[in-house]
């Protein structure tokens, strides 16, 4: 089954073709970083307009790279939420129109389920049950995955998501947008231990996160420092170490709570080199494993939507002709797949 996937939940336009027999055939992502840089963040209306401008050319490009014509598709999947409503409507409208014209089924995919399932596209994929850490600019969640479509929330952030904390911390230190990757790169030049910040909410039971206080600690340290290049790198390293260690502590607790030794990590922060190394070490010490998607599939992309959509379409699930999107959407409300579909 060949499925076209469309992702337009925020500021990346992503398109991919996934074949349930041959795997990922082609994928492309257009980022709007330059468009939003002067504002220091995503402007929803500009994001929607740019999706309108870029989506159809990207669909044509991706189909060409896959060596397919539109009539070769067996289904269309698109991000239906959560996300920016205007941006979501662009992808949903195009996807539904294509499906109608081609007379193939279409399905709206939960954005975070797409992230969660992305590691299953890699070699030697993990099989449920496992624990998933969804860590990005908009979400930080620990989820017990009993089966595809059967998700139980274990813990989540009470304020800033980890990626959001990276971006905001970078901004207060004067790093250019988008700040998260800039801060992570700067931390590579920092000296470990020069600045040590708290590991928030690790001194109490529970699996929830909070990163706003950590951000304030970094602000105070930066304001009281000499603001030299090395000091900025040292503060960046201290911040990154605090986030990574906090995530690792909570992941280990989540594995204990779920009775699992497999942690799956997805989302933009999942590409962080130090986080990957720390979680791999933690999982190995338990006799388990940590699984990640390739870095190019950590950020928002059409491949994860095509894959998640293909699993559901193959299981016989599809949506009606209505164009429906949701800014907020509880992943626990998703229907489970039958064992044969997973």
From TrEMBL:
It is found in: Cytoplasm. Its cofactor is Fe(2+). Residues 24-307 form the Gcp-like domain. One of its GO terms (cellular component) is cytoplasm. Its EC number is 2.3.1.234. It catalyses: L-threonylcarbamoyladenylate + adenosine(37) in tRNA = N(6)-L-threonylcarbamoyladenosine(37) in tRNA + AMP + H(+). One of its GO terms (molecular function) is tRNA N(6)-L-threonylcarbamoyladenine synthase activity. This is tRNA N6-adenosine threonylcarbamoyltransferase.
């Amino acid at each position: 089954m060949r499925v076209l996937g469309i992702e337009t939940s925020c500021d990346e336009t992503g398109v991919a073709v996934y074949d349930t027999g041959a795997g990922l055939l082609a994928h492309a992502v257009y980022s709007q970083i330059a468009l939003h840089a002067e504002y220091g963040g995503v402007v929803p209306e500009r994001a929607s307009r740019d999706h309108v401008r870029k989506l159809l050319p990207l669909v044509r490009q991706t189909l060409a790279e896959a060596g397919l014509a539109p009539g070769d598709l067996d289904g269309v999947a698109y991000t239906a939420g959560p996300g920016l409503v205007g941006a979501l409507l662009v992808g949903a409208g195009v996807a539904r129109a294509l499906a109608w014209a081609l007379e193939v089924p279409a399905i709206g995919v939960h954005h975070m389920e797409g992230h969660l399932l992305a590691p299953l596209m890699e070699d030697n994929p993990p099989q449920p049950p496992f624990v998933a850490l969804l860590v990005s600019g908009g979400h930080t969640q620990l989820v017990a995955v009993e089966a595809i479509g059967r998700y139980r929330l274990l813990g989540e952030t009470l304020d800033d998501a980890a990626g959001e904390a990276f971006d905001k911390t970078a901004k207060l230190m004067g790093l250019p947008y988008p700040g998260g990757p800039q801060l992570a790169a700067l931390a590579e030049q920092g000296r470990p231990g020069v600045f040590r910040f708290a590991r928030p909410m690790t001194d109490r039971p529970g699996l929830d996160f909070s990163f706003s206080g950590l951000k304030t600690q970094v602000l105070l340290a930066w304001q009281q420092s000499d603001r030299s290049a090395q000091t900025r790198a040292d503060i960046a390293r201290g911040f990154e170490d605090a986030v990574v260690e906090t995530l690792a502590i909570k992941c280990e607790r989540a594995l204990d709570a779920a009775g699992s030794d497999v942690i799956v990590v997805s989302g933009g922060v999942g590409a962080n080199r130090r986080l990957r190394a720390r979680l791999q070490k933690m999982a190995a010490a338990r006799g388990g494993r940590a699984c990640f998607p390739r870095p190019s599939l950590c950020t928002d992309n059409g491949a994860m939507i095509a894959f998640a959509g293909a699993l559901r379409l193959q299981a016989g699930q599809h949506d009606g002709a209505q164009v429906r999107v949701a800014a907020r959407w509880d992943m626990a409300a998703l229907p489970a797949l039958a064992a044969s579909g997973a």
